[in-house]
Amino acid sequence: MFEKVLIANRGEIALRILRACREMGIKTVAVHSTADADAMHVRLAEESICIGPPAAKYSYLNPSAILTAATISHADAIHPGYGFLSENADFAAMVEEHEFVFIGPSADHIRLMGDKIAAKQAVKDAGIPVVPGSEGALADADEALAAAEDIGYPVLIKATAGGGGRGMQIVHDADGVKQAYDLARAEAKAAFTSDEVYMEKFLEAPRHIEVQVLADSQGNVVHLGERDCSLQRRHQKLLEEAPSPALNETQRQSIGDKVVGAVRKLGYRSAGTVEFLFEDGEFYFIEMNTRLQVEHPVTEMICGLDLVREMIRVAAGAPLGFKQSDIKFSGHAIECRINAENPDTFQPSPGQIGNYHAPGGLGVRVDSGLYSGYTVPPHYDSMIAKLIVHGANRNECLMRLRRALSEYVIDGLDTTIPLHQRLMKEPDFVNGDYDIHWLQKFVDGTNA
Amino acid sequence: MNWPWNPLPAPWNLKNIMANKPKRDIDEDLVRQLAKLLEETGLTEIEYGRDGWHVRVSGGTHALQAAAPAVLPATTAEAEPDAATDDAIDLTNAVTSPMVGVVFTSSDPETPPFVQVSDQVSEGQTLLLIEAMKVFNPITAPKAGKVAQILITNGAPVEFGEPLLILE
Question: Residues B164, B95: contact at Cβ < 8 Å?
């Protein structure tokens, strides 16, 4: 096992990794920018090294500074957390070249999953369902009709060279195919150099469901169930829950098995997440995240596993200590992301924290580096805390979450806590009846 | 300031230098001797060092701290050069480190240091080298002046923003 791990991140996730290391008896090195000298994980780490100015480009995104810090502190391994350099294949390769262990997957797997087209092909070949579409460009309207019948309505006709919604037509039935096909080609011709179009299944109101996996270097792979992350605004998740209110046991088993099979086939190691759009009982691959995710605690709460600990163990070469049949899901968990933002306008609100009181009690977990008197620097992401609540069932979880939100005191700046409290009163949310567009409409006040 | 600094080819090898550093073995006899000395002399703190390591024995809390320079304990994250046991240094004219790395006072082990205390330097003159990722980065004088104090020792690891020397 490692003696010393360098944490190449900041904020709550740096503290999260530090906690796992502490419990494993591993010493930690915190690297930080000048703006984070007072951060909680810096204060708690055995060693800390200032690696640069506030701008992430010269500190948290600076491979040379991080590797130099690892060298002078004699670290054995580097945990990249999420964001920053966590999905940078070149950084992962550099870490290994310098004879440190990268606590994550291989550089090759990061690179493969970073290329969206190659990733889609690779997972499709490994048995994961992807969004069905025409194989290449459509020669004429008849071919388009045949493809649409094959895929199933509604379908989307898209310009091969397209982007930004131009050259895109939604078709709901056979009668509309020819007109949409001609229109898409004309639009594509006007907007792009090529008038080639292709077809994909159109998902109207999907949910975002992702499957957590864990794999070791010996080829053992388990899935830890799914998380429902449909509540998003501008592609930023706000609240995540596990299990998804939309899945039944058969669907859960089926997608879990497919993901495990594919991950084993790909030879992937470490924690990873396969993200899907889910509509009408079908899953469609979006991408695979080759890192620890922000919302990993909801999975931990229902599985009783420490994902960071498992990542460190498998990075050190240890085999997984459990099989799929050992994984038992218990109860329901929800995570609220608390951002330093105005809950109505989403204006960022950095500044100094006045009084701070975190909620507690049975089934309540707060992952945050906040403390009274701490100043939230303006240079980084606005997420300052995660409130994670576990209950025996979804209803108990919701009751507990309402209680915990009402206890949480973060004085001195605006946070998204009031938005979460508003959300808890929404019948659609309470019923688990929402898709990826729901939150934006809720925020805009346009939900029916 | 210009980021990133122009790199120079590397005559030193950081890994080798670090590998040759002695590991932190606790010399119990030494600590005991120092503790005894502390009691006899009535001092509150003794710091004793040689060959790139130092031991500080403090009577106030009976805290023992052995620190090789290859390690930066969190409690001393602020710059703490060997001279820090003296009165606080005025850092207004300090030249600080632009990066995390290992500092060198000369271009290779055989040549004399770039600068010494009380040297007059001109703006742009190389004062020190900082090695990061096997690349040597020259630290140049931001202005003309006299080297009042050198706060680091050859081969010491430094953080970003750590004071290196005082230029008056």
Answer: yes
